[in-house]
## 1
Amino acid sequence: MEQITPQGKDFSQWYLDTLKVADVFDYTPVKGAMVIKPYGWKMWELFQKEMNTRMEEMGVENAVFPTLIPESFFKKEAEHVEGFAPELLTVTRVGKKELEEPYVLRPTSETIIYDSYARWIHSYRDLPLKMNQWANIFRWEMKTKPFLRTSEFFWQEGHTVHQTAEEAEAMVLEALDLYTNVFEEVFALKGIRGKKTPNETFAGALYTTTLEVLAKDGKAIQSCTSHNLAQNFSQAFGISFTDQNEEQKTPFITCWGTSTRALGTLFVAHGDDKGLKLPPKIAPIQVVIIPVIMKKEQETEIEESVLALEKELKDAGIRVKVDRRDLRPGNKFAEWDIASDSMMIARRDTSEKFSLERNNCVPAIFDLLEDIHQSLLRSSEEFLQKNTSEVFDFESFCEVLETRGGFIKVSWCGDSDLEKEIQEKTKATIRCIPFEDMERPKGKCFYTGKDAKEIVVFAKSY
Amino acid sequence: MEQITPQGKDFSQWYLDTLKVADVFDYTPVKGAMVIKPYGWKMWELFQKEMNTRMEEMGVENAVFPTLIPESFFKKEAEHVEGFAPELLTVTRVGKKELEEPYVLRPTSETIIYDSYARWIHSYRDLPLKMNQWANIFRWEMKTKPFLRTSEFFWQEGHTVHQTAEEAEAMVLEALDLYTNVFEEVFALKGIRGKKTPNETFAGALYTTTLEVLAKDGKAIQSCTSHNLAQNFSQAFGISFTDQNEEQKTPFITCWGTSTRALGTLFVAHGDDKGLKLPPKIAPIQVVIIPVIMKKEQETEIEESVLALEKELKDAGIRVKVDRRDLRPGNKFAEWDIASDSMMIARRDTSEKFSLERNNCVPAIFDLLEDIHQSLLRSSEEFLQKNTSEVFDFESFCEVLETRGGFIKVSWCGDSDLEKEIQEKTKATIRCIPFEDMERPKGKCFYTGKDAKEIVVFAKSY
């Protein structure tokens, strides 16, 4: 068995070792791009299915738009192009011929989608318009890490158009709720929800909301974002509609996305020194059956039992694999006891081992899978609580940051320049202005001592 | 209601009108690329699901590989680069910086996938290796048509590696069977299966097999291909393995794909003057419920019945939509009769109308959907038979081609230059060397009068 570096020794190395042992990705000759291997891609497919079911209930329909975007399009929203320019991969040639107008590979699809929306939206009857696209996205990043930051990655991007600012605001939160629910119900992960500061707002948005999750090393990950684009892109792309009173109006747009980074989040938030720890809903294999053959004469009998059990679990919709690798039983996790018609169960999450009746075992296994989910979710909640500190001065802030890491809540004056100054000094950034603290008294800024404008959460991040 | 040009008047216009009315696509500012709108994309998702289920049974696993391919990679297989060079979109810039080595956008993924395979395959224990990728593909085509030929399209590409030539040959046919079955069981379409002539063989393959389907205008469509790459790419990419006798061997590769073109095939092979005609398995909406309110006082009662029926069908897994548009009943397809507790059914495929008992209607509707599938499949089979001719001289060939179109079977000498000559004269190409005629006596070549090498099928094609 390949060795996994312990998390406490070198978390980055633990991450790479773990992904290698789990066989979820491989490097490629394309800078920063990875192959997502079957065991990793299956998780993405399971995630897509969960998302699609929920989006359908929200009235969101899937469509696809071109990958290539005319370079000029990208310049229509001024802040937007500035935010993305250095990372844009640009197609300038076809065969040996130079293109008259270069195309960029989408780093996000607002511009190409809203160009279509402008043709589709005429009347209030066309609204709300809610579409989602599953797509590959291209951003030429300098520092990359499998799943967490790659030059090509996969995501979904929802783009909705509304008559009123209020509807758009509600949609931004509905999308954030979608992510919060999926992270909780599928990934068994809890995080902190809030608004981004202007420094961290999406290029072209009025405001950005996020769900920030903690990795086991105490660093934060932005697991998804949901943006209120207000009328910025509607104006830039000439989207307008006639309202109920025959008046010409400019609609309000939201967009929201999460990516293969969500899988990276899952890996770093649940993994331990044994490697990946996957919640059952996203695990490509939920149950591994390991036949243990102690005496040669039992082989046929055991094999028959194994096949029957495999079929029973599969028919019940459980993702099951039989591991017939010829290892010493000591290396395996469970034991068969044909005589007593029971089996040994080993839980990946708690390492508990116990015996289970073979007869009518399916409901017990479903209960077990649900219990594993709940137990992982509780761990996540506890980890989040334990690793969220509150401090009141910069000295304590630096101390917590260096010793414990995690989320650090502070009262904050709201000054963007000072936010950058703190980042330069400490590498920590404001992850969000948490919704949960919005109603609290704000107190004095931990950095300037002035009256605070808001409570924010700082962390070092991926 | 928008007008659809009759097929007999202008088939190309019929196609575009039909797709517009069905709302499956839209044009974009990117040359030859389309938006696939929700009603079209849903069909692709249903197709993916059907394919994934079958591929899983075949032991094929999904993965993803980079979209960008280093330009140099593409030159490793000489025929391969020659086949694709003029259509290659090339990324030369990132932001304002020129790339040291340009990347091409994949026009197919052999080179980038086999580069990974070379790292993954060491021993016979690693074989067979069977992976599939769902991907967007880029080919800068001069003449484009929605779904049938676009500069960006979607496909699946299966890539398998085998120890022996025999295994690879069997795999090529297994993949062709997969397509044949899906086309029959999901799309209700029959076609002709066979081998391509060298002129039409995939760039870099030993041979190519295909399933050729007829459009309603008598033109052929290559609906899928399955290629035997033999050892060409293994050698070019340095893929080798140690066999059971510790000897170093070069493996045999197959690849096979079908694309969003399959949906285009479906549209042109089943559609009629009323527009799209979708087999139930691929129809995003299988049943439309149209409440017909003749008297105002029935409104509530009817609405309740409609909601109950909708729920009953949905719970049974039927894709259902209630059409509440306020049209004159004459414009609608079915009628409610609350009093007699029955409903009017209108079949899209046969235009038949008949009454159905409301009580316990779900099994009857399932039967109906199955019957529609079978009826469409029979139509397809009959259309194929009626539009496949056999001729013995060039004069008859030209006459059939001009008057009836369709598939034309002939005995053929096998001369590639003459094949091109016939194409220049008549625009018809050899679609395939049908498997069904391989055992027949070959006779004399219809063009040269020489001893024929094989029986082939010609047609004009998309």
## 2
Amino acid sequence: MSRIVTLTTDFGRGDYDAGVLIGVILRLAPDAQVVDLSHDIERHNVLEAALLLERCTPYFPERTIHVAVVDPGVGTERRGLAARLGGQWFVGPDNGLLTLMRRAALSAGQEVEIIHLDRPEFWLSHVSHIFHGRDIFASVAGHLAAGVPFSQLGGPLEDPVLLDAPQVLPTAGGWQGAVMHVDAFGNLSTNLEAAHLQGSGSPLIRIRGRQIHGLVRTFGDGGPGELVALIDSVDRLSLCVVNGNAASTLGVKAGERVEVGFEQLP
Amino acid sequence: MSRIVTLTTDFGRGDYDAGVLIGVILRLAPDAQVVDLSHDIERHNVLEAALLLERCTPYFPERTIHVAVVDPGVGTERRGLAARLGGQWFVGPDNGLLTLMRRAALSAGQEVEIIHLDRPEFWLSHVSHIFHGRDIFASVAGHLAAGVPFSQLGGPLEDPVLLDAPQVLPTAGGWQGAVMHVDAFGNLSTNLEAAHLQGSGSPLIRIRGRQIHGLVRTFGDGGPGELVALIDSVDRLSLCVVNGNAASTLGVKAGERVEVGFEQLP
Amino acid sequence: MSRIVTLTTDFGRGDYDAGVLIGVILRLAPDAQVVDLSHDIERHNVLEAALLLERCTPYFPERTIHVAVVDPGVGTERRGLAARLGGQWFVGPDNGLLTLMRRAALSAGQEVEIIHLDRPEFWLSHVSHIFHGRDIFASVAGHLAAGVPFSQLGGPLEDPVLLDAPQVLPTAGGWQGAVMHVDAFGNLSTNLEAAHLQGSGSPLIRIRGRQIHGLVRTFGDGGPGELVALIDSVDRLSLCVVNGNAASTLGVKAGERVEVGFEQLP
């Protein structure tokens, strides 16, 4: 039973904590394959990690275990949880990390089951109050990868913490969404989907006092330095500066409001 | 059939696209082992990636699959390809990434076979026009790792795009080569081989108006701050500043001309 | 015999040498799983790597092979070695990298056996004088992972180079230790253990002219910007600035002296 375990953390690369997580998992499940999704989540940015999980996990096979450790509340009363979302699993703190994966699973009609990690027999024998990633989450993931049934890892948890993540709302003449992610090139990925760009006219996009008329098909369809809008690889509206950095040009970051309207072209 | 798949991209580490490639590959070939060669290729620097592939791939076992995604032409008419180079495979865009691997395979007398990735049954069902790395290349690599025969993945491609990569040329009294790669420490790796440093006299190396007389055996043979020349671990001429950064000291980057002559020592 | 091999180097991420190590290992042991502990050790910082190995390796399973390449002496007469430390193995240069792993194994009553890598039949056929990481250490690790008995890889080595790593010393009224590691967030991890903070009174910690009275349980127990002391996840004294960077605030780095005394609270 070769099982895949992914890691998503805010540890950064210069530190050794990611290696320790891998050690804990492989000690329990030596045949697991551990895959780094990202260790470069902005520190304590739960929403960024939730978004990454929403966008990456659909490409992984059934029975993949996703461990996320972005955990500003470690050492407080915040709970740990594991979730079955369709055919995959999530393990991490109960702070909203699974919000978007859960929303996607529910809207795809998949079954969602969440448990409270309340059984210390599946944790390391010494649990520190500052590194549950190692002592609880990696250990639980290791047991799961080694074949322990999900339902044995804890009792039911009915009220997971969920993020108030921006949703798309209707406006008078279109939609209001938000920048959800800024990638390494400064491109702005929004929560507006391709369908939101279909309306009575040509789309007119507004962000930070700037207007973009219509969509381009690829970067190559805009001139250098031009602010353009396109439908990205995950079928969402993305705003980019050709050969440049939209985030720094506009001075915006995740959370910035984006509005879509429609105009009649002459 | 546990198969190794390597990844070489310009995605950077802060982004999540590398994780998505891994997911696509493992969904098709759950027993594959995915290895990151580099996600830090300079954006759109096809030559840098070609060089990395030339230098790393000989150390990998037969049947390794190398996926490279440095793809400035995505969304245009540029083709995708896969290649069999001796006992290994390459999958990526047809933009010259395989130039140096192919040159090495041919000069080693290995068989080279290239196909056009023109069969959508081996791609993801929805192909975006901006992320063929995921939708085509990772998917094709996953099928190959899962045992689909190479020849089924596409029809023959006779005219792959090849880079005009610097080659070593003879001069009146020696050789003219070029800096091919600047490593993390600012050392300059050239395309001049150990054999080019053998001549009638002691080697005299010229770069950017500077002269280096003779070779040292290791860094330790030069004084701090001294510009030295040595034969590096891949049997090529490398120029270094001891305890310093040759690239920033000289103000040079990949492509810079390097000349080798010979002088009589008194 | 699926075997785990970890890598710890100072290569940085932008370079391709780590990929080459992986290739060499997998060519000899295709079923090995290679895990990156860190490629971000400060260049030539042997102590930092030794500390990472001490702290990470206990979490890995028996029979894990740890390869470390932080090797300022490559090309000189410095020897290569392999060690059996309890149930795990180490492979790397004889420059003190195993100092802390060895100290921990001995104080846990484990058997330690060290050999000199003096048998070229387990190296790559062409050994450069500047990249033993690839030509000797990765190759030896690959043979070990493939099942070659440890004792065949070399003859006994009785006098390994050991670092003069800071140890905790008693003072008139307490203990003197040192900062051993600065993490990505600027937190200062020391070699003082929880037991050193137990004394006749409340602990009083001194570093760089600053005093810290008592310990907090978690970051959350201090106000923003406050310098606090706590017992960290590896049971050691750690000094942190809440929501800040202790290393830059205090202007200290690894090696800085830390003193513990005790005071009577009114």
## 3
Amino acid sequence: VDLRVVLVAPRNPLNIGAAARAMANFGFTTLRLVNPYELAFREARSAVGAASILAAAEEFGSLAQAVGDCELVAGATAAARRQLQHPLHRLEAGAQLIRNQPGPVALVFGSEKFGLSNEDMSHCHWLMRIPTADFNLSMNLGQAVAVCLYELIREPGAQPQPGRRKPAKASDIEQITRLLLETLTESGYLNPVTAESSEQKIRRLVRRFDIAAEDAPMILGILRQALWRFRAPRA
Amino acid sequence: VDLRVVLVAPRNPLNIGAAARAMANFGFTTLRLVNPYELAFREARSAVGAASILAAAEEFGSLAQAVGDCELVAGATAAARRQLQHPLHRLEAGAQLIRNQPGPVALVFGSEKFGLSNEDMSHCHWLMRIPTADFNLSMNLGQAVAVCLYELIREPGAQPQPGRRKPAKASDIEQITRLLLETLTESGYLNPVTAESSEQKIRRLVRRFDIAAEDAPMILGILRQALWRFRAPRA
């Protein structure tokens, strides 16, 4: 996506810095500020981690100018007030529309204190709602930017990684089992009378551990050492 | 999900407050802190918007204690260092595993400065990586918590809302078209010689506007007024 992140009248340098850092985290570069509080903008420029984004950030006198070159203007909001005039998409769906947009897109965030005004919203094609649990609790600006940008880059098809560890061969597992059984017999844990059913319990237990090939030698070493200890003549 | 958000050694009251606010935003309530800097914790408790979560936050002397009652312990990270010992899932996939977990789950975040230590990680079943663009730029703690919690509550199937505006009937659109054509003829924009092809262009243009039913009367009013003006005898 050819995205411009647009902050309207941000007041807090920490929030401007946090927005820029989230952009750096998720690989976006164009930051535009509409009437930022001068001091906030100056202080934000010294923020860690996103210096190049902040140095290149552009300042505009109006939202109309800031979004002038964009083919889609989407407003982000966590609250539900004042939105009846505009189509409102959940973030998941809005992000899809943004990703499908070939031309430049502006993603507009309102000020910390007031959010997007009706005037700001009138420049937006539609609004996108971060699906928060509580309509009345606004989101922190830096966190809202992070969540929206994350949604833009997330991969719907991502699957759990299979554990990268190669499982131990059955023969290694069985060797571990036999050594463990011997050890438990030596320790007195296994009662020779009920040995058969106990053996099966232990065998199943060892299988449930999903022992990795690379861990087998260490486990065997531990058991051999214990056995040696049990069988060694007492001093 | 029965989730506990666990922050290890957080130093900055703003970050503790931001984590709690993100929890409130996305509907989670159980916050646990492992060895927080006393002052940071005390200051965070006065944060806006998430007072009840912070008031109920529990303090622990070790990560082992903080995750003791959990059946799954997942560590969150944005960096890629030091993770070779652990299965590493992308956030999208890890969140799926967490949602599928019936018992209580701990989601563990490292300190702002150092992230999760190897010792911290050794308490985790696996790690979950926020898919940032740059491995070397860590995420802000409050933003990382917000992004992870958002991923846990997002709805994969969310579809763009159809515009809630009812489209105008074809007869209204046609009435608008006729009035516009009359107006353009009166204004001299339409040349009577080439009128037919121009008419079709105008007709298609009006259809592309996707005029809503509720907007039709205003547009008709605008055109009627213009026509009246053109046709009125000059003073």
## 4
Amino acid sequence: MRITRLEGLCDGVFAVALTLLVLDLPAPKGSQALARDLLQQWPSYAAYVVSFATVAIVWMNHHALMDRVARADRGLLELNLLLLLFVALVPWPTSLAAQYLRDPRQAGVAAATYGMTMAALSGSFSGIWLYLQRRENLAHPSARPRLGGALRRALTGVVAYLFGVALAFAWAPAAFAVYALVAMYFAISGRRAASSTSIRDHNQISDEPV
Amino acid sequence: MRITRLEGLCDGVFAVALTLLVLDLPAPKGSQALARDLLQQWPSYAAYVVSFATVAIVWMNHHALMDRVARADRGLLELNLLLLLFVALVPWPTSLAAQYLRDPRQAGVAAATYGMTMAALSGSFSGIWLYLQRRENLAHPSARPRLGGALRRALTGVVAYLFGVALAFAWAPAAFAVYALVAMYFAISGRRAASSTSIRDHNQISDEPV
Amino acid sequence: MRITRLEGLCDGVFAVALTLLVLDLPAPKGSQALARDLLQQWPSYAAYVVSFATVAIVWMNHHALMDRVARADRGLLELNLLLLLFVALVPWPTSLAAQYLRDPRQAGVAAATYGMTMAALSGSFSGIWLYLQRRENLAHPSARPRLGGALRRALTGVVAYLFGVALAFAWAPAAFAVYALVAMYFAISGRRAASSTSIRDHNQISDEPV
Amino acid sequence: MRITRLEGLCDGVFAVALTLLVLDLPAPKGSQALARDLLQQWPSYAAYVVSFATVAIVWMNHHALMDRVARADRGLLELNLLLLLFVALVPWPTSLAAQYLRDPRQAGVAAATYGMTMAALSGSFSGIWLYLQRRENLAHPSARPRLGGALRRALTGVVAYLFGVALAFAWAPAAFAVYALVAMYFAISGRRAASSTSIRDHNQISDEPV
């Protein structure tokens, strides 16, 4: 298995998942007051932005991960496909959240479904880091000391999402606030990890270009 | 025809087919008991997971196949496009299976449709191996002794899926059990085949990294 | 503009267009006689196969085209995007054809719409060959003598599709027979053209591997 | 971060967004006068063509941009993902415009929504050029003198789209005329910028091939 073709499939699934989110934005039919109807569906826009940002951040972190991989074996491949299963799933809880965010009795279940999907996504991410830690020779030598930190960050995400799921049944908006905070946490911690230069070739991220 | 561009199209179709499966997951509208309504549609989740896993396994085995190809001619190209026709079709029988799995009178037809699609997919896979066996100079020299085994595994899949189709009319759940077993068979036999290293470049799968 | 990135976008649009065709395959809801209902929608399956085959053949011929291009300028880029506009459109007339093939009064309009889309697709293909013929230094030196033949084949397609459109208003099934014949003509003439080896690298199509 | 993988994701999102536009083309159900019904939905065709052309032009200009980038840092990556958020959004205002273009009371809101999406898209494009201007060492040395002109063109787009939004509430068709003019402006100014050869490799656009 060449790593580039694995990346090709991953990027394809990420790109389609990002773009399919737009299908959950409703275009009201036969509206007599379009401005009002468009404003009323603000939860759909919020859900679009949060889900797009989350998938985009997962993509950035997946990139950082692949830059640390020197070789892939079948197990790593299967864990990557498990991750893609949850990435491709994101439009579904997004659609639920957009529809039920303003119905107080159902919002909790929608928020919990969203959080469980994201916890599973973070969980499969953690699984990849754990696998790399156990089979250290799959990782680039220079990346090995940092595997522990990456695993810890991914597990933090799982715990935070599960905390959000628990909150969801008490008060749904608080759960979504937690999900947004987790996304910001991953964006920021990913930024820090990226500032340590990657290995694989010369077109790298460099936060401090000379 | 450069092989890399053929792989690009294939990976694109696989990525879109994997991600379109999510469109068959229903988000109940105006539900008054969302938790119950979500749980009731469990066949949709099962169908999503089985179809995602099946397409993902086909993708992994397609990869292993392409790693064994040294050159492509027009016939090989056309057989690949026939394979893609059935890969792109998978969301359709998946949607049928999800909808009719719990209706005893229609489940047989849905299960048979699913199995026939998968048999055709395995059949076109067999066709590619058979073609490579007949035009051995398209395959990498080191891969030639193993073409017979690969063809036999693919044909086993066709026979097993057709057996599932026959079962479907007797008892639909048994047919789906057969389909799940076939997917597991391909995942495991693909793992074994992958442990024999591939040829094309240095970023290979290696089940026993040194 | 690097040619590889143009090919990346083209392959993406082709892959998505091929896979979106499945969205036009109806999964009957709440059917009481699923086998009968599935058989009754045979025009949808025929439309899926014909459209998939047509787009796949266009992709193969587009490949052969790109193998003959040495350099791209902005005009060639814009003509390629025009071609993609019609490739991305294919699922729409396919859906019309599937729905109205059995309604004698509307089948003519549906068949004509299908044929006009395909004529426009062939027309933009012809435009690319014409452009290459006029700016011969964009083409690989060894490909230049063959540009005339390629242009003639593409224009034959335009004429044949327009003939089909004219037939559509007399008898719709005859128009679809013409469209199927044109697809076969392109598949066969593309096969012949492919037997003259391509230039760009070593992983080529070769119809007569030694 | 390797630039090629960023381009892969971008091309994927562009390809899917271009192809999803077809889902907004309605195929009338059970029509008794298909020709008339198809002609009546001309705003949908106009919206398809304008949106396809706009996204295609954005893709061409994004290409020209990436050819000027020597290195990417995390900030550039995030600005690119922001751009993709608006690219992926385009099918939604397109669908609104197609539906409400002929309803005089709602057309203004639909046209304004379209214009605001495009202004945001141009705005995030401007953001990338501004970022490159501030961190000049990310750009190819030969591209640095031209960053100012590129930024000015992108900002012109933002202003023109906002002018269209203002017009929309007075007379919607005028707003759409402005949007079409902006697309033509970008196509033409992009053509000029492209005639200055790009840097990154030998398969370049050259408007004046020797």
